[in-house]
Amino acid sequence: MFIPPGFDQGSIVTSLGRMVYYTNRPEFWQGGPSERGDRPTQPTLLFLHGFGGGSSAYEWSKVYPAFARDYRILAPDLIGWGRSEHPERNYQIEDYLSTLTQFIEETCPEPVVAIASSLTAAFTIRVAIAHPEFFKSLILTTPSGLSDFGENYSSSFFAQLVKTPILDQLLYRTGIATEPGIRGFLQSRQFANPDLIYPEIVQAYLQSALEPNGEYAALSFVRGDLCFDLSRDIPQLTTPTAFIWGRESQFTGPELGKRLASLNPSAIRQFIQLETVGLTPQLEVPAVTIGLIRRFLLELTERSPEFART
What we know:
Layout: E1 7-14, E2 17-24, H1 26-30, E3 44-48, E4 72-76, H2 93-107, E5 112-117, H3 118-130, E6 135-141, H4 157-162, H5 167-176, H6 179-190, H7 199-209, H8 215-223, E7 241-246, H9 254-261, E8 268-274, H10 281-284, H11 286-300
């Protein structure tokens, strides 16, 4: 797996197995001894990747090092993805709500800023509704339950096709967990500009997709087992939140995002649309994404200066 310099791998045990995460080494970024008593506790930024063939914490790896000097960084591979355990099961929404909750309880003694992507961002909203005490603010790229406002993704042709036993495994092995399959997914689903899909990105996604039992979480996602109507939950959110939305995001365009944001303007305080950008601005335009996160850290947490460092 691709880990940026100055970061180490750790893990915790959840109810569904071991969850791996990546975190910064203070002595690398700040110099000097790294013992806990040497400097004040840093606020935490929690980076959560979205779902798709070969997804992992790599998705945020071009962004989170920019914050490593001033913040404690946590970037987990969610259960079923990356280096975390891959239980053989048909994953359900509650699996990710519960393991996200367990991860935060285990690793984050103080409220955090969560920076999350796509369907995982939608899950994070639900966790924040259930546990508002976990979060200082949310910075979310293209959050969607993929069945919003009554849309039913699971009834789509491709979702129905993947529900066919044996065929689903064949599709994964020949159409998803291959270099052409990964590149095709990134081109059609995540990037507006295919010229920005360089070899390292493809290899990082492919390496994750080829993990043993990697198909179980991916097929649960593609079948629509993890989809839900986020519009039903948004009005209950109280955590200060910002949305970043690529205008060229496939299936979940900015009009959907604006419609979701309009359901709760008291919590969703910022909506930024990025032109000529797709589903994952953190990979396509990481420098722009870093700048927006810095802005939102100031604007959403202005009452807590320790979270507004630059």
